[in-house]
Amino acid sequence: MNTDVFYQMPSYATLIVQDLQFSTRWYQKILGFQLIFQMPGPGGQPSLSHLRWAKYADLMLMAETSNHSNRGLKGSGVTLTFAVTEGSVDAIASRARNNGYPQVSGPHNRPWKAREVIVIDPDGYRLTFSEALHSTQDLEDVVGKIIKEAGLEMSSRGHE
Description:
By secondary structure, the chain is an alpha/beta fold. The chain has helices at residues 20-31, 89-98, 139-149; strands at residues 12-17, 34-40, 46-54, 57-63, 79-83, 104-110, 114-120, 126-132.
């Protein structure tokens, strides 16, 4: 057993999905997540998939139970953001589109010095993949410009 794969996770998200096997394959094929393990539930069928985007960027998918069913689109209003430190958001967008998945927006260059692609998963969860843009502008200058253009005042709170 590869013990490097298992470690204490400081934080992770758990998503309830309608079809665990379909969603597990979707995250692997469309977005490139790695399946770490599946936990069997009653009757031996998988009830949880542990997926990993990168070290300390883990995601648990749980099979929907009768307690969760018929509540509409699961992911409505939920966004998960993953930092892209290897590869690129362009590659993620291409991978999704090349696999025939249309729910992709971007990549977009953002004023906060990031390039992002947004993918909506089959249960409606919004996944944002963000990579740093190298810029000569200071982040405070970028944020200050956005605040000024919005007609707001920059708070000095936290800088005292």
